[in-house]
Amino acid sequence: MTKKDLTIGMLGFGTVGSGVATMIRDNEKELTQRLGVKVKIGKIVVRDMEKERGTYVDHGVLCSNVSDVIHDPDIDVVVEVMGGIEEAKYAIQESLKAGKPVITANKDLMAIHGHSLLRLAHENSCDLYYEASVAGGIPIIRTLEDGLASDRISGIMGIVNGTTNYILTKMKEEKWSYEEALTKAQELGFAESDPTSDVEGLDAARKMAILATLAFSMEVHLEDVSVEGMTAISTEDLELAEQFGYSVKMLGFAQRDEDGIDVSVEPVFLASSHPLSSVRNEYNAVYIYGDAVGETMFYGPGAGSMPTATSVVSDILAACRNLLLGVGGKRSHNPMNSRHLKGEDHQSAQFFHRLLVKDEIGVFSELTSIYSKHHASLGSIIQRPGEKEGEAEVILITHSLSRKNQGEIINELKASSSVKQIISNYRVEGGVK
Amino acid sequence: MTKKDLTIGMLGFGTVGSGVATMIRDNEKELTQRLGVKVKIGKIVVRDMEKERGTYVDHGVLCSNVSDVIHDPDIDVVVEVMGGIEEAKYAIQESLKAGKPVITANKDLMAIHGHSLLRLAHENSCDLYYEASVAGGIPIIRTLEDGLASDRISGIMGIVNGTTNYILTKMKEEKWSYEEALTKAQELGFAESDPTSDVEGLDAARKMAILATLAFSMEVHLEDVSVEGMTAISTEDLELAEQFGYSVKMLGFAQRDEDGIDVSVEPVFLASSHPLSSVRNEYNAVYIYGDAVGETMFYGPGAGSMPTATSVVSDILAACRNLLLGVGGKRSHNPMNSRHLKGEDHQSAQFFHRLLVKDEIGVFSELTSIYSKHHASLGSIIQRPGEKEGEAEVILITHSLSRKNQGEIINELKASSSVKQIISNYRVEGGVK
């Protein structure tokens, strides 16, 4: 390929798109020096041609039709920052078939159709890069694909949703209620007006599916991720966690051993000494355990216009470099390993249970016999008076047991006439593996 | 290039080399799947052919002469893990001239001769990778070259020497003396029997020169790094730091603004809320501030056989991939920016001073007038009784001032008859930029 300038067609011009345009304009000199040719934005597809835009672009580049970009022979690279599933998928497919490398920031799409899109890219000798789809400004996709490529990754723990981490931080540090923290996050612009996908863990689940796919070289699907939201977390739980040396975090897990894999998103009591515990506010961090490298962690902003644009433009640089060298899409994304999900009997963790029980003789021994019957040994047991006469609160932290056994314990506790309420129930992570 | 198996020639078979051999053996299947061809170790140059080795290798691969590897046409890739400067430099130069890509873990060499070696690699269309030379298992070189390539990096702060961080952690948490902590680090095998290069900051300075070169795309030399060691840090300083909300860390800095760059290694009072403050023991972490991405941090093991091998083998994968595609050494390493070192009048920071003064009328106002004369405003001033009658201790934390002014203040304090001793003097970092 001759060294002509490279032209980008961008689909969408929202938060991320305007960051990308700003960055390409402001860093023009550096980008040109890195590539040896100039990169310019040739077309931007927008929904509303008349809308006032905060970011200056020549109005001549705006157009309204996706096909204006994907079928334009002058467009060398396509950047998809429009979001959504079907239209974005179609646009990416057509771009790849037309021989254009694609950069996307679309986690929803990559979590569902990533496997087939990456195959299509490889078949068409085009790159499909998606660094911005997980943990905004943190180059975590690249780290798994290149930096740690030699290692066998056995576990990932991630704070991959900034909204929920912000809410938990403010509930803990400022004693705000869940609702106050959520409202503030919405005012600051990083929680959506409908926060369901964040607080119910779906957004994090999409990212964990993408990370697990890469880390394990396995076709992990969104449906493989078990998800529990954060709405049941109370300020009291946070205080209790702190007393026991934990912080409450919404964590994504992807774990692998000889029995298979286990991917989940759930609220967790995380040991305060764990590096992820000190991740505050809307920051993201991904903690990776590799058999050879041991513990590593990658920390940074999980969202925002400019951080996300950093990842998109780094992807643009990589795609352009490959295009100039004629080596696009060389990496096969066929999974090396077949996917085997662990059953609940093989998924093990520690658990924190807080129970409201009758304050009667024999209750304590009834409780402990329920635990031992299901092969749970206990690390801590604390009984304290309940708020009402005749009630006691019991807090138990188990040693590691299977999720199956823990489920059976919970069912038996619910059925017991001595147990008035299971106030809370958290997975516990002891920190350093 | 036809897809034949690729053969590695390794120079050296110490801690890192045996990790590399172990990893290539244990992960053979995965490496082959990633590359499409098999990678094997064809030759290993050792000093002592007869020595018993903990890592199994076929004795037929051992040889005693560097030229057996660099001039062997069957060797495709050279891995330099022998250490030292002159012999390693010669071996790398000859390998590159012979058209063989080189992977090195040699920070001493890269800090001094990296610029010329990278140019030589580019001229010979060969890759020269050196991920393992900085922060062992953390893929920080790649992050600066690719993941954050689009951004303008304005600052790096790094814990890039595991030995000193281990010593400081143990002095703080276990109340060990400096000598006790050093001895333990030597027993554990991560401090050398001669710890000078670690504790005097030279090891960290080499790494900061390498990081600054990449981050600023500038030819930064080892001599450009101003270095202060850790031997003056006392347990009392650590306690005092904690009282004021700081931890004492040996930090590497690389900072850039319109006045130029400033690279240093020094003991610092770092705000406890800063992400680097929670990096404990022998771990490394590199905190990067980019104009667009904002704050990021990369954390992991800084040394050790297998973590370092992870970086070396990831580099081997990248070099092999480029070799198979015929695109080795395509990246020019010519610096994009010319190097301009800031003078001391443009290097600014906050400082913590602890002084032993005469407890007399007028001393306090004499002190404060020295500070204001040199344009230093004070954030905190605390006076407390000294251990002896007639003495007082004064602790001052300045707002930001230039190093030049701070030097003048120190000189004037030394000259003052009211000041009996400057007990300690630290740079202060307020945390989040």
Automatic annotation (TrEMBL), chains A, B:
MF terms (GO), sorted A to Z: homoserine dehydrogenase activity; metal ion binding; NADP binding
Q: Its annotated pathway?
A: Amino-acid biosynthesis; L-methionine biosynthesis via de novo pathway; L-homoserine from L-aspartate: step 3/3; Amino-acid biosynthesis; L-threonine biosynthesis; L-threonine from L-aspartate: step 3/5
Q: Where is the active site?
A: K207
What is this enzyme's class at the first EC digit?
Answer: oxidoreductase
Enumerate the residues binding L-homoserine: E192
Provide the alphabetized UniProt keywords.
Amino-acid biosynthesis, Metal-binding, Methionine biosynthesis, NAD, NADP, Oxidoreductase, Sodium, Threonine biosynthesis
Q: Which residues form the ACT domain?
A: 352-427
The EC number(s) attached to this protein equal 1.1.1.3
Instruction: Tell me which CDD domains the record gives.
Output: ACT_HSDH-Hom
Cofactor list: a metal cation
Q: Which Pfam families match?
A: Homoserine_dh, NAD_binding_3
Report the Gene3D superfamilies cross-referenced here: 3.30.70.260, Dihydrodipicolinate Reductase, domain 2 (3.30.360.10), NAD(P)-binding Rossmann-like Domain (3.40.50.720)
- Which GO biological process annotations does it have? methionine biosynthetic process; threonine biosynthetic process
Keyword NAD on entry: yes
Q: Which reaction does it catalyse?
A: L-homoserine + NADP(+) = L-aspartate 4-semialdehyde + NADPH + H(+)
What protein family is recorded?
Belongs to the homoserine dehydrogenase family.
This chain belongs to which protein, by name?
A: Homoserine dehydrogenase
Q: Which organism is it from?
A: Jeotgalibacillus campisalis
